[in-house]
Amino acid sequence: MKTPTRLAALVEEGLVDEVIGQLMSGKEATV
Question: Which domain holds residue 16?
Answer without folding.
Answer: 1-30
